[in-house]
## 1
Amino acid sequence: GAGVSQSPRYKVAKRGQDVALRCDPISGHVSLFWYQQALGQGPEFLTYFQNEAQLDKSGLPSDRFFAERPEGSVSTLKIQRTQQEDSAVYLCASRRTREGGETQYFGPGTRLLVL
Amino acid sequence: AQSVTQLDSQVPVFEEAPVELRCNYSSSVSVYLFWYVQYPNQGLQLLLKYLSGSTLVESINGFEAEFNKSQTSFHLRKPSVHISDTAEYFCAVSEVRIKAAGNKLTFGGGTRVLVKP
């Protein structure tokens, strides 16, 4: 079956530009996560959705970062006025239920480079 | 809050030799434990996980990890590696909570395994 997909796979943005990153989770998955992975580091949590509700946004680094999942399926992570420190791989993961022991399935990531 | 430490950033190993990747965690509550693998140019894939019960868990491709609560460790081992095991390995934890806003994963910094012929 289809896994988690993300688009675009690569994005180059000029500093100050707004970007939008899309995540298509596995169909029917209740939970959706966004993570940020800087070069040479492990992924770090950004935000969590349960269906359409954003229940945890404690990892968003600034108010320039905004995420939504309006119909409880596709999610978009938006970064306004991008800065060089935003350069990273942005990973989306989905999970079938709310249960913490269930597996999170990751997409291939969007590699963002801010010049 | 929890944290994860992977003590080795890189581990070179010869084909058919054993390998151990170390993972230690810190948490004030009980945790679930995971190992994810990232092959070159691919996304993160679950390798194995510990939820409860037997402290030794195994994957289908020969890896195993043992949960040690007293040492707060979850080291990953394979008795004989193949070239195809070249990848980056990430240890991760999530808190066991009844009311949880997501049970987010907290990852270590990763260990890059390079299997040499």
Note: Chain A touches chain B through 28 residues (CB under 8 Å).
## 2
Amino acid sequence: EDQVTQSPEALRLQEGESSSLNCSYTVSGLRGLFWYRQDPGKGPEFLFTLYSAGEEKEKERLKATLTKKESFLHITAPKPEDSATYLCAVRSVNDYKLSFGAGTTVTVRA
Amino acid sequence: DAGITQSPRHKVTETGTPVTLRCHQTENHRYMYWYRQDPGHGLRLIHYSYGVKDTDKGEVSDGYSVSRSKTEDFLLTLESATSSQTSVYFCAISESRTGENTIYFGEGSWLTVV
């Protein structure tokens, strides 16, 4: 069974203070690792898909990286608008569904 | 905007009553999903569909049924609602024909069972 563990559960940052979120996973053949952002009262919003170890993707202040066992979401010089819960999910080669971690809630103070 | 509409967005119902949540998509995507989100558990798959009239169970399917009679609509039914089914329900869609595996989510339906 696919498993996804995210750490830390919560992260409080000062504006401009860069940090990283971790997503550790076990899957029987990775088809894709996904990062989503979720704001309170909203549905998850797609950020990135990573397909193979060594792959990196960037979007504004966010950068996602992937190894064979984990993924990191780096937040560079965060702003208050980056405050959200960030969700990691994996999809295995023989499956149509995503298996999610519990998320990391990031709060950025001005 | 992923072209997904969920209804109702908020509902309060009594224990033992049937409840149906509707998901409507305008993307003509083949795959549709129902997830529930609870504190400490993250998003968990209830049921999914890989085509009209083709559905399968997810990890938390007990007490739920689904139907898909048209590509654009995926219904989730709670046969007899219980307090443990109080949750936020998200519909999602994806299209794998092009190899793109991304799953897009709707805005959620908040269900309270009293």
Note: The mean pLDDT of chain A is 94.
